[in-house]
Amino acid sequence: QIFNQHNAEAPSLEQAFQRMAQMEPNLDHDVSWFLLPSYWSKMVVALISFLCFANSYDGDFVFDDSEAIINNKDLRAETPLGDLWYHDFWGSKLSSNTSHKSYRPLTVLTFRMNYLFAGGFYPVGFHVINIILHCTISVLMVDVFSILLGGLQFSNKGRRLNLAPKSSLLAALLFAVHPVHTECVAGIVGRADLLCALFFLLSFLGYCKAFRENKEGHTFSVFWVLVSVGLGAIAMLCKEQGITILGLNAVFDALVINKINLLELIRKLLYKDKSVENAGLLKKGLLFRITLLMCGGAGILYIRWRIMGTGPPAFTEVDNPASFADSLFVRAINYNYYYSLNAWLLLCPWWLCFDWSMGCIPLIKSVSDWRIIALAALWFCLIGLICQALCSEDSHKRRILTLGLGFLIIPFLPASNLFFRVGFVVAERVIYLPSIGYCILFTYGFSLLSKQAKKKKILAVAVLGILLINVMRCALRSSQWRSEEQLFRSALSVCPLNAKVHYNVGKNLADKGNQSAAIKYYREAVRLNPKYVHAMNNLGNILKERNELHEAEELLSLAVQIQPDFAAAWMNLGIVQNSLRRFEEAEQSYWTAIKHRKKYPDCYYNLGRLYADLNRHIDALNAWRNATVLKPEHSLAWNNMIILLDNTGNLAQAEAVGREALELIPNDHSLMFSLANVLGKSQKYKVGNWSFL
C-alpha cells in the first residue's frame, strides 16, 4: 500500500525503507535504552569519552614514552623525514639486529609534528591529541555499530539509515568508557593504537559506502573498495593490526551484503554441491571484491616485509616466556591462558597493569594447574557462541554473533603468537580494536535479557551502573598514568611477582635521590628474576656511590657474565675496579665496554680518568678527545683536558682546547673558570676576566 500511494501526502521512499526495516528483526525492539537523534548520540558519546580521560591531559612522559619520544632522534628536525620510512617505532634502523621491527612511520610522524609545533618535549600537546583521537574514534563507533547491529541500508537519496539507534548508542558508550583503553589514551605511545583504530574504522565505513547505489545503477563502487584498501594500508602504517580490517571487510561483505549462511555454504562445499553459486558466493560481485581485498592485502604485506627485512624481531625469554618453552604443549596451553586473560580484561577491567612480563604470569607446566579452568571457560564460551553463530535458524542472530566474534578475534590475531612471536605476555593496548567485538556481543546479550526481563528498567539501570563504574575507573586509571611514580606503584598490587615493576619503582626512587628505598626494590627485582641484568647494574651503581664496592663488583661481574655484551655494566665494573685500585682489570673492562658499544663517550671519559690516575697523560688526552668527538657537549671531558694540559704546563694548548670547548658549549661556567685560570697564568688578564662573564 505504501508504494501505491502517489498523492502529495504520500510517505516518501525513505520512510518506506524505514518501515520495511522495522518489519525485520531489530535489536532496538527489545533494548530498553535511550533513543536520541544521531547528532545528539554522537555529542553524548564524545562528551563522556572526553570526561573519562580528560585528567590525563597534563601528565608526564611515562614508561615507554621516554624511548619512543624523548630519546627518539626521528622526532628532531635535523633527522631527514625520509629516515622515518627506514626506522622502527623506537628510531632504530629496521635492518639492525636489535630492532623490534615495529614499523609505524605515520605514528612517529605525528610525534614529530607535536614536537615541532610545541617547540620541544612538552607532554601536554601529545596528551591532548590522544584524547581528541579517542573521542573521534568513539563518535565514529556510533556509525560503525549502527551498521554492525542494524544492517546496511540506504535511502533513495543515498543516505545511510540508522536502523539501531538505541543499540548503537549503548555499544558506542561501552566502547568509549572501557577502562582497558586507558593505556592507549593516557600513555602517549598508545597513539599508534588510536591512529590505527581511526583509519581501521574509516576503511570499514569506506567499504560500506561502496554499496550505495550510484546514478548508473551499479550495485557497488570499485573506487570505494580501493579507497578502503588504501585506508587499511594507512592503518597498518600506524600499527600492524590495521591490516586485519581487510579480512573483516570481506566477512562483512559475505554476511551482510550477500547474506551468506556459512554453515550452508560449508555443507555445499564439502558435498561439492553445484549450487554453491546460489549460496551467494558469486552473487553481487563478492568474489571480485574479495579478490581486490586479498590482492591489496598481499601487496601491502609484501612491501612491509621488504622494508622490514626477512629477519624476525629479536625478543628475549623474559618478554614472552611461553614462546621459548621447548614443549609444544606448554606453549599451546599458555598461549590459550593468555587469551583467557585478555578476555577477562574485557569482561572485568579492574586489575590493570602497565607491564605483564617478568614473572607476572607464571607458566602453566602441567594440567594439574588450577588455571586450566580459565582455558576451559574461555573455549566453552567461544564454542557456544560459534555454534550459535553457525547453526541458529535466526539469520539476524547469526549475523550479529558472527560479526561480534569476527571483530573480537580477527584484530587480535597479530598479537596471538600464532604467526610470529610477540614481545609481550599480555598488553592492554592490543585489546583496543578487539573490544569492538566485545561491545557487539555485550549489546546483543543485553537485548536478549531485555526481551526476557519483566522489569526492563531495572536492567537498564544496571547497565547505566556499569557505565558509571567504568567512567570512574577510567578517571582513576588515567590519574595513575599521569606520573611514573603513580603508574609503577599501582602495579605492585596487581603484579607483585613482576620483577620489572619493582625495577621501575626502584629506578623512579633512585632518580629522586631516595637511594635507600631504591636498593630495597632493586634487590627484590633481582630476587624475583636472578638474571635481571639491568636491575643488577643499577643496584651496583648505587652501592658503588655508597662505597660498598665489593658487593657492587659482585653484582656487576654477575651481570656481564649473564649478558657478555652489556656495555654499561662493563663500564660500571671498570669504575668499581678503578676505585679498588685494580687498574689493569679496570682498563680491560673499559675496553670491553667500548668493544660492545663503539660510540660510548662516557666510557672514554672514564678511561681517560684511569689513564690520568696512572700518569699516562697522552692516553688520557686521547681518551677524552674521543669522548668529545662522539659527544661534543661532553663538558667533563673538555674540562679535564684543559686542567690536565694546565697542570702539565701546556698553557697554549690548554687555551686552544678551552676556546674550542666554549664555542661548542658557550654557557658552561666550569669551562669558563678553567680557561680563565689558564689565561691568568698566561698573564692575559683582560681576556681572562671577560671569560668569567
TrEMBL record:
Class in the EC hierarchy, top level: transferase
InterPro entries the record matches: O-mannosyl-transferase_TMTC, TMTC_DUF1736, TPR-like_helical_dom_sf, TPR_rpt
Location of the protein in the cell: Endoplasmic reticulum; Membrane
TPR repeats: 499-532, 533-566, 601-634
Main location: endoplasmic reticulum
Record's bilayer topology term: Multi-pass membrane protein
E.C. no: 2.4.1.109
GO molecular function: dolichyl-phosphate-mannose-protein mannosyltransferase activity
Protein name according to UniProt: dolichyl-phosphate-mannose--protein mannosyltransferase
Protein species of origin: Regulus satrapa (Golden-crowned kinglet)
